[in-house]
Amino acid sequence: MLTDYHLHLRPDEDRAQPYERWFTADNVDRYLAAARAAGIEELGVSEHIYRFRQSLDLWDHAFWRSQAVDDLDAYCEFVRGTPLRLGVELDYVPGAEKRTAELLAARDFDYVVGSVHFVGDGAVDMDEFGIWAQEGDPDRVWQQYFEAVARAARSQLFDILAHPDLVKVWGALQPGPRQDPRSYYEPAVEAIAEADIAVEVSTAGLRKPAGEIYPAPAFAEMCVEAGAQFALSSDAHVPEQVGYEYEQAIALLGSLDVTEICVFERRRRSLAPLGAAAARARRS
Ligand SMILES: [Zn+2]
Ligand SMILES: [Zn+2]
Questions:
Q1: Are 185 and 165 a contacting pair, CB within 8 Å?
Q2: Do residues 116 and 94 touch, judged by C-beta distance below 8 A?
Q3: What percent of the chain has a predicted confidence (pLDDT) above 90?
Q4: How far is the CA of 61 from the centre of ligand 1 (A)?
Q5: 281 CA distance to ligand 1 centroid (A)?
Q6: Global confidence as pTM
């Protein structure tokens, strides 16, 4: 089994184009065709919560206000009319746990991908509203980022923890922490194990300046030692990115003797054998 659960039907940069341009049967077909070609059996979409008006009940942030134009229920209805699993990429908003739980309970998602993109009001992965211009000490950013990840895991709001070390996204373009990163992973991994949340192995990091899968090998290894399970995704924003560089993700999981990945339906998780054979056959 190979999955790609963390998908977007439109590019992030696309803010002017209407929702209707991307949420079409034709666009979904392009993603399905790409998945078939890549040997991916389970495909699901997880649009950013902040593209929907309903997200403003959770957080009043200038970036979200600039993005929140679509209707979450129209999205759910559209995806339910396609062969895609229905997911959502939902930012963890500290203090909004109850409202987040209510938003989720009112809809029948197959899974919820939990993300930390912001430390306080500052984004770790964007220049716009970026944390790095506000906070000069990379160790402070890393510490706060992984504290937020731990809280997100413990909130029990999510099935999958997205790009769990997104804070490294800029690679050498931002100074890294002076401390051993494992000291920051540790509390996050403890929370992951306690909460039993699936850890996303995301090949998106390979497309970013970091040039590395999320999570880093040391982080992934600590997750395995703690008994965590993994979900596999590309975080594709165009059909060409479906299953992006999965050979590398499969190799990482294989090196850690991980033989199963998580699959989801109506927020119930089960484990399936990791389909390395399919990917290998594709390569040859
Ligand atoms: Zn994300
Ligand atoms: Zn995403």
A1: yes
A2: no
A3: 92
A4: 16
A5: 30
A6: 0.95
Closest listed ligand to the CA of 114:
1
Ligand 2 center from residue 114 Cα (angstroms): 10
| pLDDT score recorded for residue 284 | 46
Helices (H), the chain: 25-37, 62-67, 72-80, 97-105, 138-154, 181-195, 217-225, 246-255, 276-283
Q: DSSP character for 97?
A: H
Say how many Å lie between the CA of residue 223 and the centre of ligand 1: 20
Residues 259 and 256: their CA atoms lie apart, in Å, by 9
Which residue in 277, 182, 176, 269 sits closest to 220, CA to CA? 182
Q: Which helix (H) or strand (E) holds 268?
A: strand 268-273
- For the record, the structure tokens of 150 come out as 């731990």
Q: Which of 61, 47, 130 is nearest to 96 (CA)?
A: 61
Residue pair 87/110 in contact (Cβ under 8 Å)? The answer is yes
CA of 254 to the centre of ligand 1 (A): 25
How many Cα atoms occupy the beta-carbon half-sphere of 183 within 13 Å? 8
Task: Give 160 Cα–ligand 2 centroid separation in angstroms.
Answer: 12
Q: Which amino acid is at 267?
A: R
pLDDT of residue 16 exceeding 70, the answer is no
How many A from CA of 245 to the centre of ligand 1? Answer: 18
Distance 48 CA to ligand 1 centre (A): 8
Q: Of 136, 65, 152, which is closest to residue 100 (Cα–Cα)?
A: 152
Max alpha carbon distance in the chain (Å)? 50
Higher pLDDT pick, 121 / 16: 121
Q: How many residues does the chain have?
A: 284
Q: Name which of 68, 69, 76, 67 is nearest 106 in CA terms.
A: 76
Q: What is the pLDDT of residue 275?
A: 87
CB 161 within 8 A of CB 200: yes
